[in-house]
């Protein structure tokens, strides 16, 4: 860690914590609107620098971008290129999120939990400021940058439950539609920001020290698994969710996998783990509470090797509410991906596509609840229990944050964030989630994920490194 970077554990408390200390976690704070323009911060970065970075257009991200540096262990030149590519993306993305949080109603951003996340973003941008002033040219600089990135990733590991608690406390002062709109944009942006950071960290760890001398894993490029087996992920998530059910209900639901159980494709295991965990939580809880625990949950896996973006239109339209007003036709998707709001560009080539159907006999979704299932502000538990859940939730690799809570009901019902956040992970790289409910019987959930193709499909010309360096220089 650079000496001039203040570690998170040494940052003094916020100036307003004394005023908030007397408030319980269930009581929202009522500040005066004339005391400051935005919450106080110990960050050193100036408002002018934040405005400058936020004004820069965000570069769309694809999975191909993350594998273009090659398989680890990387040579020094490729590792430096990865560091500079990472550094070309993160500052403006962090600045965009800071500006978005400043645009929230004052009483919301003044909430201690929301303010904590706001200050985390300011701290992270301040940490990166010494690095993005000039390109990283030596391995020593890359090591210092990677140490700073590791600190940033740890700082943001608990963002989701912290924001959840803050917005639950402020639910009287902000419309549910506004909460959903902000969180959808914020959490989708967070997926890309965290993915870029963790990809470089993984490449660095696999290319330095003892790891560089070990035989390389032919199936992994950083956080991407080029031969990911969905059936293995389903079994892994089943074990975790079934254990939670057994602790809460004393019942361990059964699950069967059929279809193409040996199917493989290239994707990010952490993303799929989060999505499957949330879908299985819903299915197992509904199955148990409907009294049909003897009926096994059925997971069917199917692969479609040449599914293009256009062929996913019907699935996306089923998974997006009218309130979001997104056009997921081929033309609409390309227009969205070229806009400043996009975090991911369309995949240029057809890539293997995997569809999973999760079928349960949990009685289906009540008609009055169906319109709300994609809302971040919707939960099947009451407000007091949801706030308690937010307070007890801890983080695990940043992606399973809402799942890893105590043994109370929040472990199953969560905070109402699981399904919409799972959809965000699915849609981020061209997939989607669709729900078909037969009320009184059960629910089918269709999860479609589009991979990145084979490594041979990724451009690896002799001049690839020089092209990447020119591209990175052009984004600074």
Automatic annotation (TrEMBL):
Q: What is an example of a GO molecular function annotated in this UniProt entry? A: ATP binding
Q: Where is the Histidine kinase domain?
A: 269-453
InterPro entries linked: AK/P_DHK_N_sf, BCDHK/PDK_N, BCKD/PDK, HATPase_C_sf, HATPase_dom, His_kinase_dom, Sig_transdc_His_kin-like_C
Residues covered by region (Disordered): 20-41
What SUPFAM superfamilies does the record tag this protein with? alpha-ketoacid dehydrogenase kinase, N-terminal domain (SSF69012), ATPase domain of HSP90 chaperone/DNA topoisomerase II/histidine kinase (SSF55874)
Enzyme Commission designation? 2.7.11.-
- Provide one Gene Ontology cellular component: mitochondrial matrix
Main EC class of this protein? Answer: transferase
Carries keyword Phosphoprotein?
yes
Identify the keywords attached in UniProt to this record, alphabetized: ATP-binding, Kinase, Mitochondrion, Nucleotide-binding, Phosphoprotein, Transferase, Transit peptide
GO biological process annotations for this chain's record?
regulation of glucose metabolic process
Compartments where located: Mitochondrion matrix
Please give the Pfam families that the UniProt record associates with this protein: BCDHK_Adom3, HATPase_c
Report the family membership. Belongs to the PDK/BCKDK protein kinase family.
Q: Please state what the protein is called.
A: Protein-serine/threonine kinase
Organism for this UniProt entry: Exophiala spinifera
């Amino acid at each position: 860690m650079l000496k001039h970077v203040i570690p998170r554990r040494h940052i003094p408390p916020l100036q307003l914590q004394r005023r908030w200390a007397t408030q319980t976690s269930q009581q929202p704070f009522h500040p005066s609107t004339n005391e400051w323009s935005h919450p106080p911060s110990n960050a050193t970065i100036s408002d002018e620098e934040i405005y400058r970075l936020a004004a820069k257009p965000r570069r769309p991200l694809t999975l191909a971008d993350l594998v273009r540096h090659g398989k680890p262990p990387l040579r020094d030149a490729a590792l430096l290129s990865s560091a500079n590519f990472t550094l070309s993306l993160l500052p403006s993305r962090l600045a965009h999120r800071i500006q978005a949080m400043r645009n929230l109603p004052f009483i919301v951003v003044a909430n201690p939990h929301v303010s904590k996340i706001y200050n985390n973003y300011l701290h992270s941008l301040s940490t990166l400021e010494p690095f993005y002033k000039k390109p990283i040219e030596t391995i020593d600089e890359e090591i210092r940058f990677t140490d700073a990135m590791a600190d940033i990733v740890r700082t943001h590991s608990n963002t989701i439950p912290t924001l959840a608690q803050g917005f639950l406390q402020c639910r009287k002062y902000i419309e549910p539609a506004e909460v959903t709109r902000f969180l959808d944009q914020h959490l989708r942006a967070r997926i890309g920001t965290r993915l870029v950071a963790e990809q470089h960290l993984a490449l660095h760890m696999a290319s330095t020290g003892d790891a560089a001398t070990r035989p390389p894993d032919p199936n992994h490029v950083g956080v991407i698994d080029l031969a990911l087996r969905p059936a293995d992920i389903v079994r892994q998530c089943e074990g975790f969710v079934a254990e939670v059910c057994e602790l809460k209900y004393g019942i361990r639901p059964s699950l069967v996998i059929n279809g193409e159980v040996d199917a493989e494709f290239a994707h990010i295991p952490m993303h799929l783990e989060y999505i499957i965990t949330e879908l299985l939580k819903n299915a197992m809880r509904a199955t148990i509470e409907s009294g049909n625990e003897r009926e096994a949950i059925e997971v069917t896996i199917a692969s479609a090797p040449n599914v293009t973006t256009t062929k996913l239109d019907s699935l996306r339209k089923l998974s997006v509410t009218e309130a979001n007003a997104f056009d997921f036709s081929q033309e609409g998707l390309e227009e969205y991906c070229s806009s400043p709001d996009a975090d991911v560009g369309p995949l240029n080539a057809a890539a293997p596509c995997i569809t999973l159907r999760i079928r349960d006999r949990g009685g289906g979704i009540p008609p009055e609840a169906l319109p709300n299932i994609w809302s971040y502000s919707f939960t099947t538990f009451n407000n007091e229990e949801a706030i308690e859940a937010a307070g007890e939730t801890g983080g695990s690799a940043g992606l399973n944050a809402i799942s890893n809570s105590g043994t109370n009901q929040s472990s199953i019902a969560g905070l109402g964030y699981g399904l919409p956040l799972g959809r965000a992970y699915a849609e981020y790289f061209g997939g989607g989630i669709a729900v078909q409910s037969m009320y009184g019987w059960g629910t089918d959930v269709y999860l479609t994920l589009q991979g990145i193709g084979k490594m041979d499909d990724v451009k690896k010309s002799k001049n690839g490194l020089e092209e990447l360096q020119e591209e990175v220089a052009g984004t600074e």
